[in-house]
Design a protein that fits this description.
Mean pLDDT: 88
Number of helices: 12
CATH topology: Rossmann fold
Structural class: alpha/beta
Low-confidence stretches: 1-46
Strand order of the largest sheet: 1-2-3-5-4-6-7-8-9
Strand content: 5-15%
Helix content: 25-40%
CATH architecture: 3-Layer(aba) Sandwich
Shape: globular
Amino acid sequence: MSRTNAFAPDRRNLLLGGASAASAILASGVSHPAMAGAQPAAASKTRPAQVSASVITTADGTQLYYKDWGSGPTVVLCHGWPLSSDSWEAQMLFLASQGFRTVAHDRRGHGRSSQSWLGNDMDHYADDLATVIESLKLKDVVLVGFSTGGGEVARYIGRHGTGRVAKVVLVSAVTPLMLKTEQNPNGLPIEVFDDIRAAQVRNRSQFYQDLPAGPFYGFNRPGSKPSQGLIDEWWREGMQGGHHNTYESIKAFSETDFTEDLKKIDVPTLIVHGDDDQIVPIDAAGRASAKLIRNSKLVVYPGAPHGLPETHRDQFNADLLAFLRS
């Protein structure tokens, strides 16, 4: 895939859902004034988290909505941007029917969780995940992270270790770093993501329709058969999140360097990535992550797009189940 064609900024056509618009969600790098002085969440360090039916309140007062389906060995799933735990329902239903307990929460500012003004960064996301795991007293969990959720899983291990973790699965993950820097020349230029933020501010609803209708699911490829249901659901989940939160999250998943976090993963790890991922290109992400994680296995889906848990659902579910049982 030509980097020039796929990722060159085009301000006029950004909202048309072309490849440059889609890939722009990978890597932003401009700090927002609201982030100035924000400190990482001290999950469970100031006061115990409070748990009620389907809601966990973190130490800083953020309410996290979560789902807890099935019984058996526990799988915790972390969703992508700007979606919610609803994006994992196909996997949760499948795994629960196979004898697993599945847990997924809406990231702060996404879905039904609190739209906190501050804390929309990877350190807070990781500490929120720790709060969920600790509050539900989960042990020997398999952490599954899709796209931004993959970064969340990596940062969780970087900050909290693998004491409660048995295995890791990274799917179309943003790790190790999406932003182009001197040390990461294969990343994407910051100008692309300045444009994506401008597009979100200009007309978030339209952008959230265009992105899934195009590169996210590969519906812009010749011969593809777009699913209006998938497009509508993506839009619904995205619009349920906070405008400010999803805007800030672009910086979080693109500018955060997960290199040192990946090096701390010391449990069996499955990396799944499509080689036609127009959102998180495989060379800068899946293949690069596999080189940094000991005891990892990279599985490449030929022709698969970013949203492969849906477009390749049966194959992915089978591979995930086999890894869980291995």
